[in-house]
Write a structure and sequence with these properties.
Number of domains: 1
Helix content: 55-70%
Oligomer: single chain
Distance between the termini: 14 Å
Length: about 180
């Protein structure tokens, strides 16, 4: 394994962390490094333009969002099929998810200027609002959103293992490695 492969692997880990946690984590922007700084550092380290690196980030983000949306859709379809949710509740969940996404996008800049305490308070407020919304609509969030929690713990998804992935869709490591060849 070459030095570039090791560095690419480390960068994939960092990029994945940013993609999964979003532009701001509970610990601050990118654990002390914001997205723009990461893109600039990657571009500089590998002699690529920031536009090239940003394009890869954007593609990965879009793919991740589409995958998550499909997983939610599948989960909701299963819940409707087994009678745990009505079709109307399913639509309410999809609408709420879209509303939450729009709100996150609108608040992106605000999150970056908040202190850790302010972010924690804002997240708690949003969590409580979501619980209230779910109760008002007779929706058990633990059925809909991965047991109603996020964070460390056993995986319950059925996404393919890296060995089982479609060869037409290169892995994140392959995409980043190809970018920096």
């Amino acid at each position: 394994m070459t030095y570039k492969h090791i560095v690419a692997g480390a960068l994939v880990l960092g990029a994945t962390t940013l993609l999964v946690s979003g532009p701001v984590s509970a610990h601050g922007p990118g654990f002390g490094m914001n997205h723009d700084t990461l893109v600039q550092r990657l571009a500089s380290a590998f002699g690529k333009s920031t536009d090239e690196v940003q394009t890869v980030f954007d593609q990965l983000h879009e793919e991740h969002q589409a995958e998550m949306q499909q997983q939610l859709q599948t989960k909701l379809d299963e819940l409707v099929a087994n009678g745990s949710l009505t079709a109307e509740q399913k639509q309410l969940v999809l609408d709420k998810q879209k509303e939450n996404q729009t709100e996150r996008e609108a608040m992106k800049d605000q999150w970056q200027t908040m202190t850790p305490e302010e972010r924690k308070a804002q997240m708690e407020k949003q969590r409580e609002e979501m619980k209230t919304w779910a109760q008002e609509n007779g929706i058990d969030l633990s059925l809909v959103f991965m047991g109603g929690r996020r964070g460390p713990g056993p995986r319950t998804d059925t996404s393919p293992t890296p060995q089982a992935q479609d060869t037409q869709n290169p892995s994140l490591l392959d995409q980043v490695t190809n970018l920096f060849k």
